[in-house]
Structures are given as C-alpha cells and as structure tokens.
Amino acid sequence: MIRAAVLAGLGTYVPSRVITNDDLSRILDTSDEWIRSRTGIAQRHWAPPGTATGDLAVEAGGRALKSSGSGDVDLVVVATTTPDHPCPATAPGVAHRLGLNAVAAYDIAAVCSGFVYAMASAAGAIAAGIADRVLVIGAETYSTILNPEDRTTSVIFGDGAGAVVLRAGDPSEPGALLGHDLGSDGSLKDLIIVPAGGSRQPVAAVAASGDRPAETYFQMEGKPVFRHAVTRMVASSEAILHRAGWAPESVDWFVGHQANVRILHAVADQLGIDRDRTVVNLDRVGNTSAASIPLALDDAASRGLLTPGDRVLMSAFGGGLTWGSTALVWPEIVTG
Ligand code: UT7
C-alpha cells in the first residue's frame, strides 16, 4: 500500500512589528487606498533588523511540533527565498535549534511556491520510506530583500513563518495529501528576481559604491506575473481536482497563495469555486511567499472556518516561474 503524507500538526509565527499602509505612505509615493484596492493588503509584519529567517522558522516549527503532539521528526525541509546564508542551508540550523539532533535537513528554493514544493518533497520521502515524520516549514524575511525605494514591491511583501508536521499514514485518512501537481517555466525567470548575490552576478561585481546595490534587491514585473499566476494556478488546481475526483463546487475552502486578493478571486471564479470559499488573510500579513499557505491555513483554522471533514484545495505560484497544488480533507488537529 502507498504510504500517504498525513497532516498531523500546524504552527505559525509572525514578528510583532506591524507596518501599516499609512506607515509606507509616509516614506513612499503610495497610499492606503491604492494598496488596498490593487492588492487587498492593509498591513504586513516586518521583523526587526537583525532577525533572520531561521529565527522565524524555529518559532513556527516548534509550534507545529507541539501541535502534532510529538517533538520527533526524521526530516526537516525549509522552503525559503530568504535563507539565513547563501551557504549552508537554513534547515540544518533550524533542526539543531529545535533539538532534533542528527535528522536530515535541507532547503527548497521555489519562491512563493516553496511550501507546496516542500510538502511534495516531504510526501515523496514518506512514500519512499526515507522518513516517517517530516517537519515542513515555509519561512521568509522579505523585509531584508525589499528595496525601500521601490513602491511596486515594498507594499506587497511581509515576513512570517508557517509549518506543518506530515506523518506516514493511509491515503484514505483525513489529512492525507491527495496528490501533487508541480510545474515551472524558466523562460520567464527574470519576471521575479534578485539579480545579484549568486554565481551569475556575485555581489562583489556590483558593490563598487558604499550604498547597497539595487541588483541585490528583489524585483518583480507585477502585471505579467499577475496574468501567469491566474493561468497557472487555475490549470494546476484543475489537475489536482481531477486527481482527487472533486467537483469544483464541492471544495469547501480554496487556500491559494496570498499574493493579491484580485488573483485569488480570479482563480476561484475560473475554477467555479464561490469567492466566499476563498481563504483570505493577506489583508493582515501581506504576501509572505513560502510562508503564505500555512499562515492562511492557520488563520482559517483559528477563525473556525476550517472544520474536520472540509475539502481543502491549496495552490501556489511564484518566481521561477513555479507553481503547484495539493489537496486534503481537513483532519482533527489542534493548531499551535
Ligand atoms: O508572490 C509571487 C507572485 N506575485 C504576484 O502574484 C503579484 C502579481 N502582481 C500583482 O499583484 C499586481 O500586478 C501588483 C499589485 C504588483 C500591481 O498592481 P497592478 O494593478 O498590476 O498595477 P500596475 O503595476 O499596472 O500599476 C498601475 C499604476 C502605475 O502607474 P501608471 O503607469 O498607471 O501611471 C504604477 O506606477 O500604479 C502605479 N503604482 C503605484 N501607485 C501607488 C505601482 N505601485 C504603486 C504603489 N502605490 N505602491
């Protein structure tokens, strides 16, 4: 029998510092009205300077372990666009700080699709018998890569972390991930990019002046990204609905990557899912990239929206370009 990956725990963390749209309007040529109407975002959390992604990951990971009722896992996967260092990966340090001793640990870099990619990777490890319990964390400190002078990106992204524990189980159990659809289109890699800091453009090559070079900041071409996000999330969601044997109207909650409420509604409309069935928490946390889906799950669970037995469709889209979807029936869990 195939060993399924079953949701056994969920925990999240956002830094306490809240940045409102009005805060940003004081330093950028923007307004609360523009940000709310174009994105749905009212505020986001930015970690205090000196905070690294691993710090947020440890908080969320610890809560997910507690929620799962056991501190034991044999693999830690961290999805992030903002790792603590170019080398080594963030996951081994997070595993160490969580007291997980010698477990396997690695990062996944799939930008805003990172969490869905990481869950698929964890499910693969479980199916192959490589791991019995996996801690999957999506964590980001976008505040460290946002160009403070770029109003097209600074108003969108926030910091945060979300984590789940996946355990080996039966495909028919509530909480079992019902398949994975993943994809990418590298011909469009420049639409979402931090140009410098990797091997193609080392920081030293652009760091001639004392100021931080613009090439080390996150850059995004919003308009084409919006279009591709809708098209890819719709197609990927349809693939998963087909695999799960679910009609769109039978989905209780669509938990999409929290990039823009207009994207979420466009995807829901095209899938034939009622907009009221779309989980939205980006108004309070902004776009938290790899942390987005677990933060939305936790928000919906703690608001009492997600109840055991609900059919949940998850879909994400991000830099790469990358996209991915999965689905599950919501299990009995106490979130952390
Ligand atoms: O998470 C990974 C995936 N990311 C996404 O899915 C993001 C997808 N893209 C989007 O969500 C939207 O494209 C944005 C929210 C980024 C932008 O919204 P838009 O409706 O596509 O606006 P736009 O880029 O077409 O800009 C419209 C106008 C422009 O002015 P002109 O050329 O019409 O005079 C911009 O310069 O709004 C201007 N603008 C702003 N104005 C006030 C751009 N950013 C701002 C701003 N405040 N922050």
UniProtKB/TrEMBL annotation:
Domain Beta-ketoacyl-[acyl-carrier-protein] synthase III C-terminal: 241-330
Annotated spans, ACP-binding: 258-262
One function term, GO molecular function aspect: beta-ketoacyl-acyl-carrier-protein synthase III activity
Broadest EC class assigned to this enzyme: transferase
Record pathway: Lipid metabolism; fatty acid biosynthesis
Transmembrane in keyword set: no
GO cellular component: cytoplasm
Residue stretches spanning the membrane: none
Primary localization class, coarse: cytoplasm
Short name of one Pfam family: ACP_syn_III
Boundaries of every Beta-ketoacyl-[acyl-carrier-protein] synthase III N-terminal domain copy: 106-186
E.C. number(s) listed in UniProt: 2.3.1.180
Active site (record annotation): C112, H257, N287
SUPFAM superfamilies named among the record's database cross-references: Thiolase-like
GO process terms (BP): fatty acid biosynthetic process; secondary metabolite biosynthetic process
Record's subcellular location: Cytoplasm
Record field: catalytic activity: (2S)-2-methylbutanoyl-CoA + malonyl-[ACP] + H(+) = (4S)-4-methyl-3-oxohexanoyl-[ACP] + CO2 + CoA; malonyl-[ACP] + acetyl-CoA + H(+) = 3-oxobutanoyl-[ACP] + CO2 + CoA; 2-methylpropanoyl-CoA + malonyl-[ACP] + H(+) = 4-methyl-3-oxopentanoyl-[ACP] + CO2 + CoA; 3-methylbutanoyl-CoA + malonyl-[ACP] + H(+) = 5-methyl-3-oxohexanoyl-[ACP] + CO2 + CoA
Keywords from the UniProt entry: Acyltransferase, Cytoplasm, Fatty acid biosynthesis, Fatty acid metabolism, Lipid biosynthesis, Lipid metabolism, Multifunctional enzyme, Transferase
UniProt family annotation: Belongs to the thiolase-like superfamily. FabH family.
Domain comment, as recorded: The last Arg residue of the ACP-binding site is essential for the weak association between ACP/AcpP and FabH.
Function: Catalyzes the condensation reaction of fatty acid synthesis by the addition to an acyl acceptor of two carbons from malonyl-ACP. Catalyzes the first condensation reaction which initiates fatty acid synthesis and may therefore play a role in governing the total rate of fatty acid production. Possesses both acetoacetyl-ACP synthase and acetyl transacylase activities. Its substrate specificity determines the biosynthesis of branched-chain and/or straight-chain of fatty acids.
Subunit composition and interactions: Homodimer.
This protein's name: Beta-ketoacyl-[acyl-carrier-protein] synthase III
UniProt organism field: Actinoplanes siamensis
Source species taxonomy: Bacteria, Bacillati, Actinomycetota, Actinomycetes, Micromonosporales
